[in-house]
Amino acid sequence: MIAAENLVKRYKTTTGYNTVLNDVTFKIGKGPNVGFLGKNGAGKSTLLRILGGAERPTSGVIHREGTISWPIGFGGGFQGSMSGFDNLRFICRIYGVDYKDVVAFVLKFSDLGDYLYMPVSSYSSGMRAKLAFGISMAINFDFYLVDEVTAVGDATFRKRCQDEFGKRSEHSTLVIVSHNKNTIKSYCEKVYVLDDGKLLEFDDVDEGIALYEKL
Amino acid sequence: MSQIQVAQNFREALQVQARVIWALMLRETKTMYGRSKFGYLWVVIQTAFGVCVFWGLRAVMGSPDPYGLSLPIFLLCGMTGWSVFSECIQKISVSIDANQALLYYSKVRHFDIILSRALLVGATNAFVFILLSGTVYLLGFDFSVSTLWPFILSWFFLLIMGTGLGALICGVKRYFESVVVVVSMVLRIAFFISGVIISYNQLPSQLGYLAHYNPVFQLVEYSRTSFSYVYPCNFLDLKFVSFIALTCLFVGLFVELMTRGKVDVV
Question: Is residue B7 part of a domain?
C-alpha cells in the first residue's frame, strides 16, 4: 500500500513559488494498476519521485508498505566507468538479490550480449535504456513505478516491455505516469488526473481520459 | 524473477544496511581507483612519494630525527593520519552531490553514502600504512609496536572528526558553493601545522599552542606512540580531542540533515 496524506510540493522559481501538488491525498492498494495523467509540467514525475522516496514533499506524509521499485528504466544511477555487469551487481547487492538470476534475465531481455561487460559510458542511449529496463524488470517488486518509459527503444523492444508489464500486472501493481492516454488505457484500471496541483480520482479510466482531454 | 530480501527485525535491518554500505564501498573503490590499471597502486605511490619528499627535505634542512622513532615511520604516521582526516573532509563534502542519483534506489540513504566514503578512506589508508610500514621494516629500519591502541584510537577520532566536518561542509555548500574552495585552502595550511612533518618536541616553544589547540596535531602525535616505547606525547588532552571529534560529528550530521530541503532530496 502507498498512501499519501495532504501532500504539498512547491518549487521556488525566479517569480515566486510554483505549487505542483496542492494538498493531495490518495491511496494505492495492491491490485489494480493506477495511472496518473497530466499535461507536461503538471508534476507527474515529481509525484512519482516522491512516491518512490527519491524526493521529499514540501509538506505531507507518505506511508509505504511493501517493496517499491525505482522509476522503471531509470539509468541515472549507472556509473559510466563501470561495466553494465558491475552496475547490475551493485543494484543486486543493495537489494539483496542473486545477481546470477538477474544477469540471465537481462541478457535475454536486453540482447546486450558481450556489451554487458563493457563500460556503460560506451553504450548508446538505447542500450542504456535496455540495461536499465532489464534490471528493473528482473527484480520482483510489489509496486512498479513507471514514468513514460514505453516510448524508448525499437518496436521489438517496446513489445517485449509491454509483455513484461503484462506479466508484472498479474502479481504486482503498476503505478504509471504519462501524458499519453493510450498508455494509461492499455495498462490501468484506475486513473488520477493531475491538474493545477489538484488530483481528481476516476475508477472509470475512460471518464478520466475524457476529462484529461478537455484540459 | 529475483525476490528482494526485506528486513523483518532490527538485526536484519542492520544486515541490510551493512550490505548497502559494503556495496557502496565496492562501487566507490571501482569508481575512484578502478579507472586505470594501476589505480590502486597510485594510492600507495602517492603516500610513499610524500614520505620520500619530506624525508629528503628534512635531510636537506638538517632536522634531527624524532626521539625514539625512525623517520620513515614518523612520516608515514603523519601522512596517513592526515590523509584519513583531510580525505574524509574532501570526499564526504561532495559525496551526496556525486551520488544523488543513487537516492532513487530506496535502499540507499544519505547516511549510507557518507558512512561508506568514511569507511573506504579509513580502509584505504590502513592498507597503505600496512604495506608501507612493512616495506620500511623489510628495508631494515627500526620498527616496533608497543601497543596498537593509541594508533586505533587516533585514527578513529580523525575519521569521525573528518566525517563530521565533511558532512558539515556538504550542508553549508548547499547555500555557499564556494565553501569548498575555502576548505581546500585551509587544509593546505593546516597540513603544515598538524604535526605531519614536524613533532611537538621540535616546535619552537612559542608555537606550542599550535599543538595544544589543534586536535589533529595531538592525534597524529598520539598515533606515533604505538610504534615506540619512548616517543613522548605528554601534551595530549584526550578529553579535549574526543569532545571536539564527537561535536564535529554530531554538528556535521545535523547540519547535513537540516539542509537537505535546499537541494530537494530526501
Answer: no
Q: Give A74→chain B minimum CA distance, Å.
A: 9
For B6-52, what is each residue's pLDDT tens digit? 777 888 889 999 999 999 999 999 888 776 767 778 888 888 999 99
Domain that holds residue B255: 25-263
Candidates A67, A71, A81; nearest CB to B35? A81
Q: Do B264 and A79 touch (CB under 8 A)?
A: no
Can you tell me the distance from the alpha carbon of A208 to that of A185, in angstroms, rounded to the nearest whole number? 10
Half-sphere exposure of A2 (CA within 13 A, CB side): 24
Print burial letters for B117-135: b (CB count within 10 Å at least 16), e (below 16): bbbbbbebbeebbeebbee
Whether this model's ipTM surpasses 0.90 comes out as no
B114 CA: distance to closest CA in chain A (Å): 16
How close does chain A come to B36, measured CA to CA in Å? 10
Between chains, do B103 and A74 touch, taking CB under 8 Å as contact?
Answer: no
Q: Is residue B6 part of a domain?
A: no
Q: What is the pLDDT of residue A150?
A: 58
CA distance A193 to A204: 12
Task: Give CA–CA dist A105/B22, Å, rounded.
Answer: 24
* E-strand stretches of B140-210: none
Q: Tell me, what DSSP letter sits at residue A148?
A: S
Give chain B's radius of gyration (CA, Å): 20
Question: Judging by beta carbons within 10 Å of its beta carbon (0-12, 13-18, 19+), is residue A192 exposed, middle or buried?
Answer: buried
**pLDDT given for residue A149 in this prediction:** 61
Nearest CB to A52: which of B2, B16, B104?
Answer: B104
The predicted structure's pLDDT at residue A152: 65
Per-residue pLDDT tens digits for A119-169: 999 998 888 888 988 998 899 899 999 887 656 667 788 888 888 888 888
- What structural domains and CATH numbers belong to chain A? 1-69+173-215 (3.40.50.300)
Q: Report the residue of chain A nearest B27, measured CA to CA.
A: A90
Residue B68 has pLDDT above 60, yes or no: yes
- For chain A, which ranges sit under pLDDT 50? none
Interatomic CA distance for residues A7 and A22, integer angstroms: 7
Q: How many domains does one find in chain B?
A: 1
Residues of B with CB under 8 A from a CB of A: 1-6, 16, 19-20, 22-24, 26-27, 30-31, 34-35, 101-108, 260-261, 264-266
Question: Cα–Cα distance between B173 and B121 in angstroms, integer?
Answer: 21
Q: Is residue B8 part of a domain?
A: no
Q: Is residue B9 part of a domain?
A: no
